[in-house]
Specification:
Number of strands: 20
Shape: globular
Helix content: 25-40%
Number of domains: 4
Structural class: alpha+beta
Radius of gyration: 32 Å
Distance between the termini: 85 Å
Oligomer: single chain
Length: 492
């Protein structure tokens, strides 16, 4: 079969005239017919033989018939290639019903100037924050997504998961600017334990949370998702290389210099955005543990176990948490049954729950951590690596997408219990009138969800009893609340 670039007259190779867009033969002058125009004409002919595909509406409320008719007329015009007429129909639909998100979205689709596109996409996202297609297009328009990333999202491609080990890191060394010694952190300053240097540290307020759906789209647009085994830290002071496991910071075992990871070679993790400082020091945490061990409840629980603590090894660590703020729809179906009549009404309201903390580390045991996860996040400050000079921090091992599922379950459960309590009071009042009330409360779709990664202070203690048994104790480094793990028996 002859190549499409072979001249049918003389078999010479044809070329493209960039001025006229014609394909011609430089040997004999033959000009190939415009197949593109022929294909367009054929496509238009085929379009005329088939009905326009139906458009799935994102809008879930009650539509005015006139607004819906204008929108459908716009789709018909767009299918015929009449973009100007389509724009007028979509504008009319939006004017008739200002909350009709689909009309605003298609105005943005048809518009050619970036200002109109951005304005209409912002309108869509204000009405429906979870509109993924509008968010994707706005992120591309704003430069938050490259054209390649936007194309990946549009095609539905998922990142390829790859494993890597021994990944090199870029770190920040926490060293004294005067003597090069090791820095540590006080409540209001950073100081050197060797030469006495002190620098005032005034942390800023923490950054505002970001929209979860935006973060997930950005992550999904990446071609590769890395699963990291270990990372390598190179000490700039002594040249030693160390293997970093699940920690964000590392103290060199040869020279004592503290290094905090800024990023790794694969850009595989997110930096924390905020941090709550320690209020309790090590002595305070030990006092809390001993006070609890000597409490009546602990003594009563260990009547058959007379063993007392032999040693307490304790370490202060910043644990990573994903913090979520969530707006959710609550759907309530209320059925009133009387002897003569039944009635059912459904109400949909929005409610809000903020500061839902999901531990992003798999160790210590999460069921113990959750008993202490109430922190006052008003003390949250902007993350700065220097704040890890005294206490190390764990890297997160639970990703935000998995954590968000857990957060949704918590929010849904809180909303069901909250709204059932409120309606129970009304039921008791109606019962005196001989009514039987049935209420079903459901957690509806998430309307908006924001998140941020923060570090929260925790003292982790291993208690060894006189008979060798071990027990875990966690102390909230801000509030002083304490929780014990299960005793691990050691057989003699």
């Amino acid at each position: 079969m002859a190549s499409p670039l072979t001249c049918p007259r003389c078999d010479s190779r044809m070329t493209l005239n960039f001025n006229t867009s014609e394909v011609y033969c430089p040997a004999c002058g033959y000009i190939r017919p415009d197949e593109i125009s022929q294909l367009n004409a054929k496509q238009a002919e085929v379009k005329g033989l088939h009905p326009r595909p139906a458009i799935q509406l994102a809008y879930k409320g009650n539509l005015m018939p006139a607004a819906l008719a204008a929108f459908e007329s716009g789709q018909d015009a767009l299918y015929r290639g009449e973009r100007s007429a389509a724009m007028q129909h979509f504008l009319r639909a939006a004017d008739l019903q200002p909350d009709f998100v689909d009309a605003h979205f298609w105005i943005a689709e048809v518009a050619t100037d970036p200002a109109t596109k951005r304005d209409k996409l912002q309108t869509v996202l204000a009405l429906m924050p979870q509109h993924l297609e509008a968010l994707r297009r706005k992120m591309e328009l704003d430069g938050d997504l490259s054209p390649e990333e936007a194309a990946r999202l549009a095609s539905g491609q998922e990142p390829t998961v790859k494993n890597a080990d021994g990944v090199r890191t870029l770190t920040k060394s926490l060293l004294c600017p005067q003597c090069g010694g090791r820095l540590t952190v006080g409540k209001q300053n950073v100081f050197c334990i060797h030469c006495g240097y002190a620098g005032v540290h005034t942390p800023d307020a923490a950054a505002e949370p970001q929209a979860l759906v935006r973060g997930l789209l950005k992550r999904r647009a990446k071609p590769i998702r890395w699963e990291i085994g270990t990372r390598l830290v190179h000490c700039n002071q002594c040249g030693a290389e160390s293997v970093l496991g699940g920690l964000l910071s590392l103290r060199c075992r040869f020279c004592g210099a503290t290094h905090v990871i800024v990023q790794d070679a694969l850009n595989s993790f997110s930096q924390p955005e905020g941090l709550v400082p320690f209020r309790l020091d090590e002595d305070d945490a030990r006092d809390q543990i001993m006070r609890q061990l000597n409490s009546l409840s602990e003594l009563a629980a260990n009547l058959l176990n007379t063993n007392r603590p032999h040693a307490i090894n304790i370490e202060g660590v910043f644990l990573p948490f994903w913090i979520f703020d969530c707006t959710i729809e609550v759907i309530q179906t209320h059925t009133t049954r009387l002897a003569s009549d039944d009635g059912t009404t459904t109400t949909i309201t929005s409610d809000f729950l903020d500061d839902v903390a999901i531990c992003a580390a798999k160790s210590p045991p999460r069921q113990v951590v959750y008993r202490l996860s109430r922190y006052d996040l008003r003390e949250l400050t902007t993350y700065d690596p220097v704040l890890l000079a005294r206490n190390p921090a764990q890297l997160y091992s639970i990703d935000v997408d998995a954590a968000s599922i857990e957060a949704r379950e918590i929010v849904a459960d809180v909303m069901r219990r909250k709204h059932n309590r409120e309606t129970d009071r009304d039921y008791n009042r109606d019962a005196r009138d001989g009514r039987i009330n049935l209420m079903r409360t459901q957690a509806g779709p998430i309307r908006a969800m924001d998140y941020q990664l923060v570090l929260l202070p925790m003292w982790i203690a291993q208690i060894t009893e006189v008979d060798g048994d071990r027990r875990l104790a966690l102390v909230n480094g801000q509030t002083g609340h304490i929780a014990f793990g299960q005793t691990v028996r050691v057989r003699g």
